[in-house]
Amino acid sequence: MGDKPRLVGINHVVLEVDDVEAGLDFYGRIFEFELRGRAGHMAFLDMGDQFLVLAAGRTQGPDGSRHFGLVVDDRERVRELVERAGAELLGGRGLDFRDPWGNHVQVVQYSDIQFSKTPAVLAGMGLELEKSPAALDELRDKGLG
Fold first, then answer.
1. What is the spatial distance between Cα 110 and Cα 131, in angstroms, rounded to a whole number?
2. What span, in angstroms and rounded, lies between the C-alpha atoms of 92 and 43?
3. Interval 29-85: pLDDT, tens
4. With contact defined as beta carbons under 8 Å apart, do 53 and 42 qualify?
5. Rounded to whole angstroms, how far apart are CA atoms 2 and 4?
């Protein structure tokens, strides 16, 4: 190990929206989540040991290449709900969309990627999720599985 701190993970991501209530409505049409809390012009959407923040005050135009990835248990159902919510679907191999405020969101399936929640966190979220053989191989190759 070197003398620099190690990156360990992401605690939260903040998305700027014009209006928090509209953001909660939009994301609530696509995802099931519990509201962790609110503070000022922010709402905190619980994701087990992580959270997503919707904050009022979008200050820039639509995101281009800049994006973040959300992990879900059913990506194809998300696709249906994104279309129903009227979000702009973006091209590419996966499921990318732009929300009404220009945030570029990429949606990935939990079973297919190396990202992992501990069994205790999954149980606390009421989820029983498995990894694909390819994701398990990827984790083993890194000494993580």
1. 7
2. 30
3. 999 999 999 999 999 999 999 999 999 999 889 998 899 999 999 999 999 999 999
4. yes
5. 6
Task: Give the separation between CA 22 and CA 37, rounded to whole angstroms.
Answer: 16
pTM: 0.91
3-state SS of 57-118 is CCCCCCCCCCCEEEEECCHHHHHHHHHHHCCEEECCCCEEEECCCCCEEEEEEHHHCCCCCC
Q: What is the CA radius of gyration of the chain?
A: 16
- Residue 5 in domain: no
Nearest to residue 97, comparing CAs of 118, 67, 136, 57? 67
| Structural domain count, the chain | 1
Instruction: Give the separation between CA 16 and CA 99, rounded to whole angstroms.
Output: 10
pLDDT of 1 strictly over 70: no
Average pLDDT, whole number, for the chain? 93
Kindly state whether residue 4 falls inside one of the protein's structural domains.
Answer: no
The two counts, helices (H) then strands (E), for the chain are 4, 8
Residue 18: give its domain's CATH number: 3.10.180.10
Specify the DSSP element, H or E, that contains 37.
strand 34-39
